[in-house]
Structures are given as structure tokens and as C-alpha cells.
Design a protein that fits this description.
Elements lengths: L3 E13 L2 E12 L4 H29 L6 H14 L10 E2 L4 E2 L1 H21 L5
Antiparallel strand pairs: 1-2, 3-4
Helix pairs in contact: 1-2, 1-3
Length: 128
């Protein structure tokens, strides 16, 4: 894949000893964000947002946030589909008095971080 784009074309007219010469020059620039790098960065951003949401879910659970409050309910609802494959991996979540420790959320965070890293590396593997 060629990452170069013609960004500007310049034409000069030169008159020399009665002869008219036209010289056309195409100025070429290299794109600072090749497609692979852009895909890699978007992947890292999307998975980064997911990891932050999962971290919020974990912290809210450990601190014993009211699951009926709007914010806690929103975080639990958004992250539920992403933690569902890991639910029950280690049995039920353990309670430490007020809050509960969701080990499966930590496992989900680790798995999604590895997936994001793998996708980002796979997309940019042929880059020097």
C-alpha cells in the first residue's frame, strides 16, 4: 500500500530566448497517519474506554455502591454484556461486608486488554 498522496500541483511557465516552456511539478507528501496506525489507535481508544468502564464497575462493587442509583445502574448495564462471558468463572462474587469483589470483572479487563493489544499489533505488524 502506498501512503503517499499528491497534495499540490504547481505549473511554471518559463520564457527563454523566445521559447515558452511549461514545467509542472507535483508536490508529494507522506501521510502522517497511515491507515494501519489509524486503525490501531481507534482500536486502542475503544478498548480503553471499555477498560475504564469495567474499572468503574469493579470499584463501585468493591465500595458497595447502591445498585439502584442511576450511575451505578448505568455502569452495570453498559458493562454487563462484556462481563457476562466471565460470570461464574470463579463462583459467586465474594462479599467483604459492604461491597463485593467481582473477580470476573478483573479477568474481563485482562482479557480485553490482551485482545486490544493483539488487534493493534496484528494491524501494524508489517510496519517497520
Amino acid at each position: 500500500m502506498d501512503d503517499k498522496n499528491v497534495t499540490q500541483q504547481e505549473t511554471k511557465t518559463i520564457v527563454d530566448s523566445g521559447n515558452t516552456i511549461q514545467k509542472t511539478t507535483a508536490l508529494e507528501t507522506t501521510s502522517s497517519f497511515p491507515r494501519q496506525v489509524l486503525i490501531s489507535r481507534i482500536t486502542q481508544y475503544v478498548f480503553g474506554v471499555l477498560l475504564v468502564l469495567l474499572a468503574l464497575r469493579f470499584v463501585l462493587g468493591v465500595l458497595g455502591a447502591n445498585p439502584l442509583s442511576g450511575f451505578a445502574s448505568f455502569i452495570t448495564g453498559v458493562t454487563g454484556p462484556f462481563t457476562a462471558p466471565f460470570y461464574g468463572l470463579f463462583g459467586q462474587s465474594t462479599s467483604n461486608g459492604v461491597g463485593h469483589l467481582e473477580i470476573y470483572t478483573l479477568v474481563a479487563m485482562a482479557v480485553y486488554a490482551l485482545v486490544a493489544w493483539g488487534i493493534a499489533k496484528a494491524v501494524t505488524i508489517n510496519r517497520a
